[in-house]
């Protein structure tokens, strides 16, 4: 596979049944020759952001919950923010994808006082843990048919219906991928 997948979505194919990733939507935050790192954006936990980062709770996008970003380093937190189209990246934010004028998604330094940047953001999600792949591991999984690689939209990580995101992203692709959205999660029940 040529090129970086940074800023792309990985959608688990129905063949990927690992409980950590079944029907997951992963936003790739970094991909290079050394490997890849991303967060699962469709797995809210039943834990408010305030349980981990109380000062960020008032700014968290609904449902205001912590999300399980992946199986690696569950004791760490990553913050994703949406920056509206007419704003440059605020202090403490590193753009992952998008551009000024169209809106962007970035990683926020969670040591930044939230009040100092909250007016410059249109979305915030906090993730416990992340998904990581060593060099060439992700490319191998894609070649084996474990992942669909699809374009991300700036609204995806902040979906008001994260549990529906897997199907929503597939449906907007049209064609055969749209049909996959109706694939039953348990084929024995079909």
UniProtKB/TrEMBL annotation:
From which source organism is this entry?
A: Kineococcus aurantiacus
Q: Which family, according to the similarity comment?
A: Belongs to the UPF0301 (AlgH) family.
What Gene3D superfamilies does the record point to? VC0467-like
Query: What GO cellular component is one of the record's annotations?
Result: cytosol
**UniProt protein name:** UPF0301 protein BJ968_003109
């Amino acid at each position: 596979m040529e090129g970086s997948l940074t800023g792309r979505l990985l959608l688990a194919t129905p063949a990927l049944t690992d409980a950590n990733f079944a029907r997951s939507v992963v936003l790739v935050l970094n991909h290079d020759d050394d490997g890849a790192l991303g967060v699962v954006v469709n797995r809210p936990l039943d834990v408010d952001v305030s349980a981990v980062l109380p000062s960020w709770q008032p700014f968290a996008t609904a449902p205001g919950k912590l999300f399980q970003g992946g199986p690696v380093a569950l004791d760490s937190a990553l913050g994703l923010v949406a920056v509206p189209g007419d704003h440059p990246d605020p202090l403490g934010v590193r753009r992952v994808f998008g551009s000024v004028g169209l809106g962007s998604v970035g990683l926020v330094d969670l040591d930044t006082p939230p009040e100092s940047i909250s007016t410059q953001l249109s979305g915030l999600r906090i993730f416990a843990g992340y998904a990581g792949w060593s060099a060439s591991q992700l490319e191998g999984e894609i070649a084996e048919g474990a992942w669909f690689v699809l374009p991300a939209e700036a609204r995806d990580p902040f979906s008001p219906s994260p549990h529906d995101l897997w199907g929503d992203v597939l449906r907007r692709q049209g064609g055969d991928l749209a049909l996959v959205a109706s694939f039953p999660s348990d084929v024995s029940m079909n």
